[in-house]
Amino acid sequence: MKYIEYKKPIKKLLAKVMRTSNKFLWEEQYDASQSEATSFDIPCTLLIDDLELEQREYDGYYYDKTGELVAFYNKESEKYDSPDKLLIRKKHLEEFLNRNDLIMFWECLGEKRFMIKEMRDQKWSEWSGLLTLTEKGIVGDVRKYSKS
Description:
The protein is mainly beta.
């Protein structure tokens, strides 16, 4: 793989990008009401405002005007380093994207190193790709770049 170094700044705006969620962190250091820090993902302000979401009894659970649960934070397990995620109902997400003329995409980056006997025998690969949400589902590809 060949890398190109750009000496001039890129001046053309290709797209505006917005995160769909924000990390909420409430540290216990100055709060006697809890014994440890609380952290979870919440929808971004534009999602909350556009879908007219509100929290009710529990933090991190967002409901629409009809009382339907639309978005919530989920962590599979507290015991392990399990993935955590912000879940949003597909119907509401698609309506939001269409109404605001937005697309959803994921930038995928990864790296893997394999040690074979000696350090000098190391194998390395980098993975990179772009996936987008379309009417057909999630499309795109992730490619592997290798060097030894």
